[in-house]
Design goal:
Layout lengths: L1 E6 L14 H8 L11 E5 L5 E4 L5 H6 L15 E5 L5 H4 L11 E5 L1 H8 L4 H5 L5 E5 L14 E7 L20 E7 L5 E5 L7 H9 L2 E5 L32 H6 L5 E5 L13 H8 L2 E3 L5 E3 L1
Parallel strand pairs: 3-4, 4-5, 5-6, 9-10, 10-11, 11-12
Antiparallel strand pairs: 1-2, 1-13, 2-3, 7-8, 8-9
This protein binds D-malate, manganese (II) ion (MN) and zinc ion (ZN).
The site of zinc ion (ZN) has 7 residues, from helix 1.
């Protein structure tokens, strides 16, 4: 199977339109060695032509332009996007659905809580019913799904401890399925990847999925728990936003150290995270732990 990282940044992207943090300002004025990144999405295929879009980023049109594989020309109107699968109902993962409105009816795989948000607090589904329309395929924690056209790949959701979106009526009372991770398995070869862009805490099920996978693509949002607070950008900690920071005791680096020697990639990286600076000490720390930093266009073949 093939995985392409379409967008490796968290909400806001990098640089963020209104941000003058060290990274965003430094990227703009050339004083920080770093690469711009679009908002969070990957695509998965078994044949290189038909893809599941996992998360529909606000930057989807730029991502499609940058990814020729998503633009086959088999008919006058055509797309390599066979279906969309969502990890949560956050803006950075769903706003791109609106940009797919010119296409055919959209097969959408998401959990019941995410489907409810998209019909309620953030009503993209009712809006899209006036354009392409959306057909819901429920993701449940009871087992994996197959997506027509993506032969030989099983997608198994795993409920994660994270946060419902700020506009959810249960932001402070999370339900199973507000956020999921995904075990993506090639049933023919037995190879697998675990994808979890928003991961607030590791429990034994998540750790088992990470151990099982040949490649993990996991929450790289923040280096520090108070990364947004220290420079006065926000009053929220990483935990308030449902993200496990990389540094510190029990942080993501320690978690990844514990799962063995497979391929480890941080994804959904916030623009404030020092790991975006290729010359930063924190980037060298990751390298010493064998941890990669996802970038837009990164291809992973398993
Ligand atoms: C998050 O995952 O916390 C988001 O990236 C926030 C956002 O989209 O603004
Ligand atoms: Mn996000
Ligand atoms: Zn910034």
């Amino acid at each position: 199977m093939n995985i392409v990282v379409l967008g490796s940044a968290a909400g806001g992207g990098f640089p963020q339109w209104n941000c003058n943090c060290r990274n965003c300002a430094g990227l703009r004025n050339g004083t920080v060695r770093a690469t711009a990144r679009t908002q969070s999405s990957i695509a998965v295929s078994s044949n290189g032509t038909d893809w599941v879009l996992i998360n529909a980023s606000p930057d989807i049109l730029a991502q499609i332009r940058a990814t020729p594989a998503l633009q086959p020309a088999r008919a006058r109107r055509d797309s390599g996007i066979a279906a969309v699968m969502l990890m949560d109902a956050q803006i950075d993962h769903v706003a791109g659905l609106l940009m797919l409105r010119e296409g055919k009816e959209l097969p959408l795989y998401c959990t019941a809580p995410v489907w409810r948000e998209l019909n309620g607090a953030l009503p993209l589904v009712p809006v899209l019913s006036h354009y392409c329309g959306v057909r819901w395929h429920a993701l449940s924690m009871e087992g994996g799904v197959r997506v027509p056209g993506i032969d030989g790949i099983r997608f198994t959701p795993l409920a994660l401890a994270s946060k419902a979106p700020p506009y959810s009526d249960h932001r402070e009372h999370p339900e199973a399925g507000d956020n999921i991770g995904l075990l993506i398995e090639d049933v023919g070869t037995g190879k697998s990847a675990f994808y979890a862009p928003g991961l607030g805490a590791i429990d034994p099920r998540v750790e088992a999925a990470m151990r099982k996978a040949d490649c993990v693509l996991v929450d790289g949002t923040f280096w520090d728990a108070d990364e947004m607070i220290a420079p006065g950008l926000s009053g929220k900690t990483a935990a308030d936003m449902g993200h496990l920071p990389q540094s510190g005791e029990g942080g993501m680096i320690a978690v990844l150290d514990g799962i063995g020697t497979r391929r480890k990639v941080l994804i959904h990286i916030n623009n404030t995270n020092p790991i975006l600076d290729e010359d930063a000490e924190q980037r060298a720390v990751l390298a010493r732990h064998g941890i990669e930093v996802a970038f837009d266009g990164m291809e992973i073949a398993l």
